[in-house]
Fold these 4 entries.
Entry 1:
Amino acid sequence: MGNKILLKNIFFILTWIFGFILLLNITSCRKDFSPSWEADFLIPLVNTTMGIDDILTDSILYVNPDNSISLLYRNNIYSFAADSIFSFPDTITGNVYSLPLTVTVPPGQTLINLQEVKKLNFGSANIFITDIKSGFVNFKIVNDLKEGVICNYKIPSALKNGNIFEINEFIPPASTSTNIFEKKIDISGFHIDFRGPNFLNSNRISTSFTATINPNGNPVQITPQDSLKIYVTFDNLQFNYVKGYFGQTSHSFGPDTTSINLFTKIINGNFSVEKVKAILTVENSIGVDASVIFNHLTAINSHTNQSINLVSPLIGKSVNITRAVETGLIDSPVKPSVYNYDLSTGNIISLIENMPDYISYSAKLEANPLGNVSSGNDFVYYKNGLKSYLNFEIPLSLIANNLTIVDTFDVNFSNDIRNISKGVIYLDVENFFPFSANVELSFLNKNENLNDNFYCSGTILPAELNASYIVITPVKSYIKIDIPPEKTEILKNSKRLIIKAKFNTASQTHHIKLFNDYKLNIKISANFKYTVNTEEF
């Protein structure tokens, strides 16, 4: 028995060696022999979950006690900065000093010794004090004298850490032409009192200026044609705090537009909602009374070119806004005055269903409409102002009709892919939403240009509902998209995948609530057939 097994093994080895030699002879005679075969390669493209917060951008989803969802959204209409009420003047000092007679002045002689109280122009505002956040004082001296001059300039009413603002500089003499000296001094952190020396006025600033001939120089002859010019200006001031009476002023806003990003991913179709709660909020963080009139608010859908004007008792009505209050707290020194106006009784549902991407508005604001009722105690802190917002609360109970959503995902096809003969894209979707959807895929190249479209004949089926229109079971859908050979080449250059889905609610006559656990689980993969040639190995 053992001998028979041995003979069989020897016969098998000899047969294998003979076959191998025969194969070598065949391949040595057929130099052009290149066998090939087709291979399947499955490439995952997208594996994601899409919820309501992925569709409605820049919003906050609020879960109600019954786990249904309401959408909360705030959009700024306009902002009014306090520096629009008044502005700081540029010029503090601008003087030209000269002598009426020709005189010879010895070294160390003081030519100019002047204290002034300048009244600055703040328009209709009366400013008492300010704390400077940032900015500069531009100091410029034009010297026509043939000797150097020591100049000292002070603003005694400007203090920082107990020290007054002071500039002390040596100005070189004029030689063949006028000598111009310029310097920019940082004035950040200074407290400036504009009440004057007796603290009884406003818009006043105290200054002093002395000019002394160089004590180490020579006697110098000064003629009436010689002069010393000084220019001092504020530059790019920002304040931390200002107090005074800011005047009785009127300001108009618009017509202008502000963008709304809520419906950015919705590009077509329409929907109906059961109700919308809308509040127009005006928040005043300035220590100034005001009245506001909204002339119009219009919802604009730039994709459909449809505009809807807000119909509300608010439009054209003067709304009085009281001033903010100082708290004395370092972290939160201001308690704003907040006014809320209910817009829910108007046509706000029509505005929302228009899916606006812009709000057009015009408004008028009156500052201190009753005059100086605060007796000079108007105030403002840095970056505080008067702002208005639209606040929406939308219970997501809706009917969707061909509501078209678009989203984009990165994809990465290998650059080594060659010899693609054909392919298939598979969509595997688990749907927890009470929506059906038709799907279209598009591919973008690295330059964000469209490569081509692939249309799906299949439909994502809606989840199963009970008699109360609540989802009880998610439904899986499988969609196959054939890629013909003539379109496979474009996939090599594709870098991004666009999914466009057209949604319809399971019921077109009944508003359906959306709940917190509703979502789409999406898997997208591609299966390609390649012609593999042995010469590639």
Note: The radius of gyration is 40 Å.
Entry 2:
Amino acid sequence: MKRRPFLQTLCGAGLASAFASAQTASEKARAKKLGWALVGLGSLSTHQIAPALLKTRNAKLTGLVSGSPDKTEKWSKQYSIDAAHIYSYERFDEIIKDPAIDVVYIVLPNSMHKEYVIRAAKAGKHVFCEKPMANDAEECREMIAACKEAGKLLGIGYRCQFVPHHVEAVRLAKEKVFGQVKHIQANFGFQSGDPKQWRLRKALAGGGAMMDVGVYALQSCRMLMGEEPTEVSAIETKTDPVKFAEVDETVNWQMKFPSGRMAQCCTTYLFNGYNDFTAVCERGTFSLGPAYSYSGLKGTCSGGKNYLDMPDVDHFQLEMEAFSQAILDGKEFHPSGEEGLRDMLVVDAIYRSIQSGKLEKVAPV
């Protein structure tokens, strides 16, 4: 064979082989299921996260972390988790030696998020953390730094960012289907039950309704406006100062954005019925209500076409699949720790405004 045809054949074969190898690697990555460990086996893990993991195409439950031997025994049987992959909080750092665990999902009271995110990152694991990310913005910065130093992804459990209803609502705003969004009203709250629950203890929750469900309304406004709030004013009211002695019961707040547009929000632990947002635009409105429930979301739009009429999906399945795929593909993930930080910067300003009784600026990222 002459030299040039030979080289062309050789190069062509080499490129074809490389392409085939790349394809195979990509297919293997898509087929692989990452091992997830749940840290905290409370109600959310029991009723939402673990069942969702059974449905994911690229993730599986391979580890448990809990302070309750009774819980881990029950979970071990239900999900076929070997004792070698079950840890107490005291033994948590030993997870570094466990190759069956790729991702650690922090499902603990808010005040424990920072500690376990940092410990998980130091153990060489990717970390997924429930919202709110932490008790304040400074803790968020420490968590972000720890994961970056470890070279691991940090994702925050903002499930609504993966739900088709919310994705479509953001599209309606971004593409100005009804003209520019001029104002947003967003609310989320519920009647809090057991007065002894951890959510009413500031040392564990960091705050009350604002931290728990207020962040959903806050984030809807940020996503739909397409810009970050610069100033907030807020007021807190309490009808039961005994039950809510340590945390906020009801918070009303306003946010001003760089464009001059405003959002009005409310969150509460006092009553049910607040679970919605409405975007008022130049040529109509669109809204979701319920907007933040695990299922049953309903949307309405001005005019004849309801863009937000969509079927239910498993919110937790979608977000865990997205995080797993980002790891497998070696890509960045959104919502990242920076997204959690942006929310907490606004929450910090809201609490400052409650204390000062004045308009407060939102600190920069």
Note: The chain has ten helices and 14 strands.
Entry 3:
Amino acid sequence: MYEYSHGGNAVFEGGNENIIDLSANINPLGLPKNVVTAIISEIPNINRYPDNFSTQLREKTARYESVDPDWIIFGNGASDIIFRLPRAVEASRIMVCAPTFADYERSARSYGADVCQFYLSKDSGFVLDDSFMEAVDAKKPKLVYVCNPNNPTGILTKRRVIKALLDCCEKIGATVAVDECFMDFAQEAAIYTSKPLLEEYQNLVILKAFTKVFTLPGIRLGYALCSDKSMISSLYFHGTDWSVSNLAQAAGIAALDDASSFISQTVEYVANQRSIIARELACLGYTVYKSSANYIFFYSPYPFDLREALDAKSIRIRSCGNYHGLDKSYYRVAVSTEENNRKLMAAIKEVSGGR
């Protein structure tokens, strides 16, 4: 039986209907009201096939991202595009950092590609630096994934490092996929996003999603940006047609109506709540890493399983023991509503002995 490990599944486990699930990283501000209205208004149109090219949504996204509409492809969440990528570039080998999002590796293995892990050092705070290029040059993968900010650490990679990686991969004929699905939560997004590099590097693919920032995980809507139109065509070819439903396209169009203001409010709220949680965790003896996303990554010095202890109090966090390069002493917790965050910290304080 296929096993799937991901946050946000607690509600599907028997008896967990009232659990506070902080294992998935969704915007605590919730769904924009106009998006709900747009989804309801689109229901009469579910009797027709969707626009396979998401034309109106691409055009509106292009204006929002300041790119050519033909540089955009939408999919059934960013994961849909992640699974198309190894096929689109005929990747016999891919390279990923560790720890990072598991679907990069799984998509490669589903295609039959070899996977090379580059282990980030906990001594350097799990920061991706120039040593990655040496490993890429030695292994010569066809596809390289970088999650920015990284999942589960929330740590950002400097644009200078991404540019050096693109130069390195250009020489060996490799594509670089930079996953920026959590970039919208970062206060420093403008100086860390790889979007300014799109025009210069045709081997760059940027992954983004409406899932996290617009609270749409159940709708499934993600996209990729790439200036190489042949890559966009290949991504279309290596996936199913009609992967973006009418409801998803309507939701995306509506979400972009006031996106800048909504994201600005989100960033301010998340940054404030994240700093409170991080400070309180540190006071309890946990090692907290500097996250720029809507989640916090930390190390526990205690011998007990924090996830199990919090489960007993109807709070679910993410154990990071199944990430390459980590063990069960590492955890990730989403920044939630102020009320949920208070309940979380009260529970952690209690199970940690009030230290």
Note: The first helix runs from residue 33 to 42.
Entry 4:
Amino acid sequence: MGQMYGHRVRRRTIAGDNPQTLAETGEFGLIAELTGWLPAGPRTLVGIGDDAAVLATPDGRVVATTDFMLEGRHFRRDTSTARDVGHKAAARSLADVAAMGAVPTALLVALAAPGDLLVSWARELAAGLAAECARVPGASVIGGDTARADSVLLAVTGLGDLAGRPPVLRSGAGPGDVVAMAGPLGHAAAGLALLSAGVRDGSLVTAQRRPAPPYDAGPQAADLGATAMIDISDGLLADLGHIADASGVLIDLSRTALGPSAELTAAASSVLLARTDSCSPAPELIALNWVLAGGEDHSLAATFPPGTALPPRWRIIGTVRQAPGPGVVVDSQPWALAPGWDHFA
């Protein structure tokens, strides 16, 4: 099965432009190459090459999370490079770890792919994974698995270290807390809409292909006394709804604080030009909905006790209130559109 990329085989060098497919190279040949493509990090005591990895855990506790990346659902090979896919796959799990207030330390990556996929694509995927890990000092890919499938599928497990901090849960928000954001909102959703409209470059398209979460903001929020935290993967309203439900509170967001930037509104206008229907909403509403329900930026949202002195990177976007039932509102009113992504809706 290639568990932990653990087969001990003689490594064959695959030239950078060699058009070999995975079927021609073989599972064991690919596994051997992965050892060189994915360098070990300083916390890795036993890395790729054995039945399991061994990772140093100075805190004595391990934060763990798992995410899928499915071809046709989370990316398309005709609009994203393999390196883009690697960056995005790593970012999704690393952001979840950071949202617990932990420092991301390692990834386990299981890859399933068609036999006719080029080895060069797998190499670029590994380069993207390694490059995104490099954004977190000390993080690395420490192992995984390989298999054959009809399309590309990645299952990524992220691990992290709390460094003595208590984990920041979804259930700690209380009335009077402020809600703050670190990182952009709506950029990845705008990028997806632009890609669908045929646009292939620009900063918003890059945000969809390669989200860049502020990983260090997670431990920073924990040190500042954050009472709850989450990364924005499915949409701001949907994800803050998890905090509201777990904490039993109402979160009231400020439309003024969330007002979409000129860049997002311009992108919405561009998307509208590509539409053929005559009943499209205004660009400002489209842009605001990207901010509120777009998801995939993997920025961090957290609640903090009132009066907490927040660094500039954390912008206040709302407040927490006591209410008869939990939920998320905008200027004290429910948002009329879908709050975010639901895989089974």
Note: Confidence is low (pLDDT under 50) at residues 6-16.
